[in-house]
Design a protein that fits this description.
This protein folds into two domains: about 150 residues, Diaminopimelate Epimerase, Chain A, domain 1, CATH 3.10.310.10; about 130 residues, Roll (Diaminopimelate Epimerase, Chain A, domain 1), CATH 3.10.310. Strands 1, 2, 3, 4, 5, 6, 7, 8, 9, 16, 17 and 18 form a twelve-stranded mixed β-sheet that branches. The chain contains four helices and 18 strands. β3, α1 and β4 form a beta-alpha-beta unit. The protein is of the alpha+beta class. About 45% of the residues are buried.
């Protein structure tokens, strides 16, 4: 439940939240039901330094499939592998009664925006004393991977459902480079577009991601879908399965892409830490529904 006070514009609403760190991609999960039209405004407030400070925000909703333990709607309606791993870890940290554990491992059936059906992240290790877990999640495979010239370099364009990434080999990270690439290759129907600045020699990526609904352009600490995009670009170039350990500004992700005459599967894994949970107050328009 959440509390509202005030009757005019700028009313204050209390929301319960959890903040997690999936491999550096800090994620706030709003645990109370919230109207979809308020996602963008709430996300902006919570992501800012005057709020909770995070790369992204997801909102818990009601799952359609009875096998799912819950649903996570991302702030722009996009899919996010790190957020899926964070939500799975949260359900494990609170010891959700429907989780079944075998030898310290558990599958966590969830729904998430941008993904049809039930996703099955797997907790492969959890430590309740340190509030940390290792979580591996299957990932959507791209609809298309192709390559284009970008000056003297090449870009790998990796299009998923609702989100696209450009893999920029050996391009210096900058907003100017992002804007140039986005102006040529972002798709208007995508909820999010990212550029993964990739140093193959160092196995390092620097992600810069735009979420359209919130208008947020974020240098992310890590990006799971972007890491998968990099691995898919490498697998498509080399025409073989690939496993990569990708260092990112604030964490490390392990990515596996399976090739069978084309990309046939993908998964990403890494550490997830619980950072905080509690209540936060946001200032919202007066039309929000009280619950």
């Amino acid at each position: 439940m959440c509390d509202s006070t005030g009757t005019g514009p700028g009313m204050v609403r209390r929301l319960h939240f959890a903040k997690l760190n999936p491999s550096g991609n800090t994620t706030v999960i709003v645990l109370d039901p919230l109207e979809r039209e308020l996602y963008a405004e709430v996300a902006k407030q919570l992501m800012g330094p005057e709020g909770l400070g995070a790369d992204q925000v997801g909102f818990v909703g009601e799952a359609k499939d009875p096998k799912a333990l819950g649903r996570l709607n991302m702030m722009g309606g996009e899919f996010c592998g790190n957020a899926a791993r964070a939500y799975a870890a949260y359900l494990a940290f609170i010891r959700h009664p429907s989780l079944t554990w075998h030898d310290g491992q558990a599958e966590v059936p969830i729904e998430i925006s941008g993904y049809d059906g039930v996703l099955l992240p797997r907790i492969s290790a959890i430590n309740h004393e340190t509030a940390s877990a290792h979580v591996i999640s299957p990932m959507p495979i791209p609809n298309q991977v192709h390559f284009v010239d970008f000056g003297s370099d090449k870009l790998g364009l990796v299009n998923f459902e609702g989100i696209s990434h450009a893999v920029a080999w050996e391009v210096s990270p900058s907003e100017d480079a992002f804007n140039e690439i986005a102006s040529m290759y972002s798709r208007p129907d995508d909820a999010a577009f990212g550029v993964m600045f990739f140093s193959e020699e160092d196995s390092k990526i620097v992600p810069l991601v735009l979420v359209r609904d919130t208008g947020s352009l974020v240098w992310e600490g890590s990006c799971a879908s972007g890491a998968v995009a990099v691995a898919c670009a490498v697998a498509s170039r080399d025409r073989r399965s690939t496993e990569l350990r990708l260092s990112q500004p604030a964490g490390v992700l392990h990515v596996k892409v399976t090739w069978n005459e084309d990309i046939s599967g993908a998964a990403v894994g890494g550490q997830v830490d619980m950072i905080a949970c509690g209540s936060v107050f946001v200032r919202l328009p007066a039309f929000c529904r009280r619950t």
